[in-house]
Structure formats: structure tokens, C-alpha cells
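Thread: magnesium ion complex, take 2
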Amino acid sequence: MMSKIAVIPGDGIGKEVAPEGAKLLEQLSSARGLGLELEFFDYGADRYLKDGTTLPPEQLEAFRRDYRAILFGAVGDPRVPDSRHAREILLALRFQLDLYVNLRPVRLLADRFSPLVGKGRKEIDGVFFRENTEGVYVDVGGNFKQGTADEIAITEDVNSRKGVERICRAALDWARKHGEKTVWMSDKSNAMRHAGGLWQRVWKELARDYPDLELRHMYVDVLAMQMVLRPELFRVVVTNNLFGDILTDLGAGISGGLGFSASANLNPGKIGLFEPVHGSAPDIVGTGKANPIATFLTCALLLEHLGHDAEARIVEKAVDLAVAENVLTPDVGGSRTTSEVSEFVRAQVARLA
Ligand code: ATP
Ligand code: MG
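Output below.
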């Protein structure tokens, strides 16, 4: 069976790292008979500046109908005011494909990448589930009496029962599949009573459906502190859009930064969008300094989404070898270029596959 994969490199270093990821997928596909069929799309700033195209609705429909995954680089370009094209492309994909799960691993590949290590080994190996379609990101609210001394700005935090339940279930199902025993839900229900109250009630109800798991809770301020003090506690965490944004940046900070951070945008069973957490990084475009590892780890998530778990492990193993031999870019203490790191990783994959 063929699996159609769309590759959208986008802008900036997205155009440098996404093609490296695509080569890795092609390589694994032919070595292991995975039947991946990759197709490149040129959506991004150049296309937008040329003819105004962001993401045509009929293409979005084709993605939904015929494709199983999108490998995405990054969008954002200083030539486009507020990177308008970027918001249109990413929001169209996220909302029209209803990708309600933002899954982000927080994993420390080697002690030397964490500012926390020094007082003994820290085990940092978790997966964060961030709600991706609701919360304060829905842009409901307004500025009243704007420009006066009495101005009031209101940003509504929108949480639906269906929305809360489905992201919690996604985390719990993932934990079950991966043999995890404990899942943390994090909110601020002591201060945000309405939204937090819903999360609390849903979480208690779900405990009945998952008697094999331990469903725990921690306020988000406490969890932020504990991620620094006892990161080994958090192997699976589920939270809302805003808290997930903040906690996963904290997670990136304690585990080596953006060059290693991968993410998946999912609606389980449907097409998924896979992207490194970093943006287009215009400051390092063309220097060979873009770290491709975040993209490779993103490819591992993509492979897992397609059910190719063994191949996902091969990619992770190849990355571990690059880390062990310090074949890395300068952002994580190495002195190699994007293509040197990429070639090394693919050579390891060739050996392991
Ligand atoms: P965007 O507007 O698209 O989000 P940005 O300028 O905010 O782009 P980010 O990707 O968010 O860029 O990253 C911030 C900085 O971190 C970059 O400017 C870059 O210096 C560094 N950085 C990000 N990703 C990488 C990477 N993969 N390899 C090396 N350095 C990176
Ligand atoms: Mg950015």
C-alpha cells in the first residue's frame, strides 16, 4: 500500500532542513519497503509574493482526502508584513484539518545539553499533549474604550467539553499504547474556575474509562517548577493550548533547545502535520548552521503515525549516534554543517535499516 506524504519546506531554514528529512524518509522507504510516496509543494513566502497564493482550498481538500501526512519545514519571512502568509497557511492546515493534538516530546539526548545537569543525572523523557484548537488562541474578546485611561482588554478562554475530552483521551490512549502508567493533567483551576472546572470534571470522569492508568493532576505553576526540580516525574502531560505552549518551551530549554525539538499536529486516524518546533530562523539562512535533528526527530513521529514504529526507532538510534560522536551543528555545541550532520545520520540509518 502506498502512503502519500506532502512535503512543504516553506521558508528560511525550513527549505534547508525539510528536504533533508524527506531524503531520510525516501531512504527508509526503499530500504524497508514502506511505500512512501513523497510530493513537494512550494507554499511559502516566495510563492505568496509571486502570485498571492497561500494554501488553495482545493489542495487542502486533496490533502484531507488522499494524503496521510505532511512534513512541514517552517513559514515566516521578513519580506512579508507580520508573515501574513504564514498564519494563513498554518492556521488553514491546523483548523481545517482539525488537528487538535499538538504532541511534543521533551527528551534529553545527552546530559551536556541540559542546564539542569550538574547536580546528578536528570532523566528527562516525556511527551506533552497540548490542546491545539481552543483556549485563549481562538481570538475571542475585544478592546473596550481603546486609547482611553479606562481601556479594558478581554481575551476569552474558550474550552468545550468535546475539546477537553478529546485531547485528554489522546494523551491517555497514547500512554496506554506506550506502556506508560501515569498521566498528568495540568490546569489553573484554582484561579480560572470556569475553564479549569471543566477540565477537572472531565478528568475525573475519564478515570473510569482508564482504570489501568493513574490519572493525576498538578497546577501549572507547580508543574513548571517541578519540571526544573524533578523533570523525571513527567512522562506524559496533557494541558491546554496556552499552558502547553509555555511548558513545552520550558521543556525545550531544559533539553537542548529548538535544534532538537520535534512536534506532531494530529487528529488520530486522520492526516497529521509534522514540523520541527523552530521557525524559519532568517538570521542563519544560508550559513549551514541549521540543525536538522529536530526535523529528523519529527520524521520519527511521522513514521510512528504511519505505524512504522521500528523505523521510527531506527531514526532515533541514528540521532543518538550523531549525539554520541558530536556530529552536530553549533547551536548544540558541534562544528558541523547541516549537510554533514544529515549525511552522517543517513549513513547510520543505512547501516541500521
Ligand atoms: P519565525 O518567525 O519563523 O518563528 P524566528 O526568527 O522566530 O522565526 P525561530 O526558529 O523561532 O526563529 O528560532 C529563534 C532562533 O533560534 C533563530 O533565530 C536561530 O538563531 C535559532 N534556531 C532556531 N532553530 C534552529 C535550528 N534548527 N538550528 C540552529 N539554530 C536554530
Ligand atoms: Mg519564532
